[in-house]
Outer membrane protein assembly factor BamD
Amino acid sequence: MRKLTSLATLLLATLVVTGCSNSKNELADQPVQDLYEKGQTYLQDGDYNSAIRYLDAANGRSNIYGEQTQLSLIYAQYKVGEYYKALDAAERFARTYPDSANMDYVFYLAGLANARLGDNFIQDFFRVNRSSRAVENVRNAYGNFQTIVQNFPQSRYVQDSQNWMVYLKNRLAEHELAIVKFYMQREAYVAAANRVEEMLKLYPDSQATSDALPMLQKAFEQMGIKDSAEKTAQLIEEYKNKTFPTITKPAYGEQF
């Protein structure tokens, strides 16, 4: 039975590979205009996997459709959840068309892809705190949106990018707070104090920084640095007068 199962699996794999090969050969023989137009039709119909198949076959074969083909591929990869592929496609586009009028759109899609990689639906559904996960993607997303705000002030994506920056900056502050708690639990007071002082520079107006101040005071007390502990106590009193707005996660917009 195992031999039959293995044989069936092998035959199935062979058929799949052969089918893919024949499909690629079939597309390779089609005119690039037909590939591009079919890819765009599938894209408009929401059949993103088929769109990727045709647009990928057209990509690189014609300068006439090159820019729009790559833009469509970035979007289609994003829509099917292939976020790393979307980011790779965005990087290729930036190298190939650095002066494109659509660069704000590319940065926007890259920002959304990085933000998606920073969390997922299951975590959102169960309201799991994601502050200590996928931090690099969060930083990259912040940088993508910041580029739009700074370099493309007239872009239609500026307002949404600003909203994302506020949210992502808060996420980064929460991540730092999680690290401070980790250090305090292990009585690594020097490391904890350094981290909170960095938070005061980078995220002075965040709830996370306010929450970290009592730990900074305790760290100084444990290290016997009384002057710094007293100054931190004064800072805690000042922060009691601050109000911090509730920051909600922006919706993943369909501004395309």
